[in-house]
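Suppose you are handed only these lines of text.
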Amino acid sequence: MSEFFSLKAKKILVAGHRGMVGAAVVRRLASEGCEILTLGRDKADLTRQAETEAALADLKPDAIVMAAAKVGGILANDTYPATFLYENLAIETNLIEGARRAGVTRFLMLGSSCIYPKLAPQPIPESALLTGPLEPTNEWYAIAKIAGLKMAQAYRRQYGLSYISAMPTNLYGPGDNFDLNSSHVMPALIRKAHEAKMSGAKEIVMWGTGTPLREFLHVDDCADGIVHLLKTYDGDEHVNLGSGTDLPIGDLMQMICEVVGFNGTISKDLSKPDGTPRKLMSGDKIKSLGWQPKIALRDGIASTYQWFLQNVAQP
Ligand code: GFB
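From them, the structure of the protein bound to GFB can be written out as follows.
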């Protein structure tokens, strides 16, 4: 795939560099010969327009990767709809308009697979966007992310800017949030299996029925896909970024228990929501652009568990 945008000697701003995705993009960019810029909360609160625009005017990056977002698992999304809608809209608006004002011609906006209708055809092609109602537990976050990708399209159309969007599937890996109330399923289940093993508990609790299917992509694969798109893609339509396979949450739980070494039983908390039944994305488009993921799920869980042991677990 020919390079549309060379990163060599360019100034690339990774917005959200302390988050799981942003940190992975920083690691991935280290071998690209570019200057990596970051924007900590101490320098600018990205939900504040004036602060964001002043910081971007000062940094004058050649390109921006928008990894900054208010993110969380199914319960956090369902409990804080206003926060998820407001903060994500504000961050996107401030970064995209701020980028335009600062003369930034290249921008990669990151969304999520929850932008697609709850009952979209599987695997979900990019063209399924806005063809049906959203999953209620995360429609607020989804609406914000749809607005973000539409902003990138609108800025391309009106101002001729090379702004693009990527929609990653459920991500996991080093730097994830392991807080049981706000996290996604992967870090929650790693923590639960580990703590049960350490305390000798006989049982761990999984939310919902365990039947929903989810697709998982290691964050280092995601960062690699982001850099690939940044260098090679200049289209109007967003691009799915997934692993190509999914599995039931119950099977994921089983795999995590094997990796962690927890041999007890798994019970279900049916008071917690299942969310969308399935959201496997089609990877045809990114494959045609010359990219595919490398990290197998079991290997990714094992290395994430090691990261958890070294960085989060209490000794
Ligand atoms: O990862 P998760 O929170 O988010 O949950 P979504 C995925 C599935 O795992 C759901 C089940 O069916 C949960 O009920 N699950 C089982 C658990 N046990 C647990 C647990 O202990 N913790 C959690 N968190 N889940 C999010 C969206 O949806 O995915 C966001 O809300 C975003 O907007 C993100 O799109 C990628 O996959 O359901």
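What can we learn from it? The chain has a mean pLDDT of 97. Residues 73-74, 77, 112, 114, 137-138, 141, 170, 183-185, 188-189, 206-208, 212, 214, 249, 272-275 surround GFB (CB under 6 Å).
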